[in-house]
Amino acid sequence: xxxxxxxxxxxxxxxxxxxxxxxxxxxxxxxxxxxxxxxxxxxxxxxxxxxxxxxxxxxxxxxxxxxxxxxxxxxxxxxxxxxxxxxxxxxxxxxxxxxxxxxxxxxxxxxxxxxxxxxxxxxxxxx
Length: 127
Known about the structure:
With 127 residues, the protein is an all-alpha fold.
């Protein structure tokens, strides 16, 4: 599945067509919380966050191509501010002691990135 996803992304971007992407594995079931140690949970959540970040970047690039020219700079500015907000917000969760904080930071990053990817994907104009 991972090998076909980049081809679907490339096709979508190259053709200008908006193709809904499959959900990265484990997103709705929180399968990452099943391992019994913090390091395994954080690694799993980081992997999922990376998959969502790829989807976010794909949605952003496709949206930039499909919106009106006067919307491009505001979208770019909003995306840059969103990245700063996400990073600062997730650092907040890690600002205390304890291994659970590592999990909270990873969950924050995954969940916020997933939400923004879905938001940009839904903002795709129909034209």
